[in-house]
C-alpha cells in the first residue's frame, strides 16, 4: 500500500499485532526466502482473504481468473475447475509446469497478450473477452496492474458473467476505489492483512452476488 517506508513498516507491525496467527507464515514466506506464490500454491492475496476462501470454497465451484499463479493451484485443489487467462507466456509456462508436477488436470491456461497502455483496445482484447459465455462461481481479477483502468474494466465484464451466489475477488483492491463505488454486488468485504511472498499490508476485496 502507498506511504513512506516507515508507514509501511508500522502497518505491518500493527497488522501482526491484530493477527498474530499470520506472523510465522508471513516471516517464513518473505520474498528473501526464495519462496514464491507458485511454490507455495497460494494466491498473492492477503492472508485474511486466503483464510476466508479456505473456509468457503466448495468442491463443486468453477473458477475463472484473469492472472494466474499460486492462486491457480490454490483454487484447483479446492474447486471443480479453473480457467486461467494469462498475458505472460513465460509465467503461463511456469504455471503449467507446476500443474503438471502436481498432476492437476482440471485447469485450462490460455495466453492472450495485450498492450497495457491501450485502454480502448484492451476493452475489446482477447484477454478480457476470453471469459466468453462462462458463468463461473468465482472470478478472480489479478494480473497486470500498471495501468489502473484495466482491472475495473475486467470487473465490469465479471459482473455480467458471475453466477448467482458467486464471488468476484479483487487483488490489491486498495488501488481501485472506483470498483467499490461501481459494484452491483449484494455486499462486499475488504480483507486487510499481510500476505504470502510479499512485503507489507494489502487488501483483497470479495464481492458477493
Which short descriptors sum up this protein?
209 residues, alpha/beta, Rossmann fold, seven-stranded mixed β-sheet, 10 helices, 7 strands, 39% helix, globular
The CATH topology corresponds to Rossmann fold
Distance between the termini: 27 Å
Overall geometry comes to globular
Sheet of most strands? 7 strands, mixed
Q: Which percent band covers the strand fraction?
A: 15-25%
The CATH superfamily is identified as: Vaccinia Virus protein VP39
Structural class by helix and strand composition: alpha/beta
Q: Helix coverage percent of residues?
A: 25-40%
Structure, described:
The protein has 209 residues and is of the alpha/beta class. It has one domain: 3-Layer(aba) Sandwich (Rossmann fold). It has ten helices and seven strands. The chain has helices spanning 5-18, 23-28, 37-40, 47-56, 70-76, 89-102, 119-122, 126-129, 150-161, 177-182, and strands spanning 62-66, 81-86, 107-111, 138-141, 167-170, 187-194, 201-208. It has a seven-stranded mixed β-sheet with strand order 3-2-1-4-5-7-6, sandwiched between helices. Helix 9 (150-161) links the parallel strand 4 (138-141) and strand 5 (167-170).
Short structural summary:
This protein has helices spanning 5-18, 23-28, 37-40, 47-56, 70-76, 89-102, 119-122, 126-129, 150-161, 177-182, and strands at residues 62-66, 81-86, 107-111, 138-141, 167-170, 187-194, 201-208. The chain is α/β, with parallel strands linked by helices.
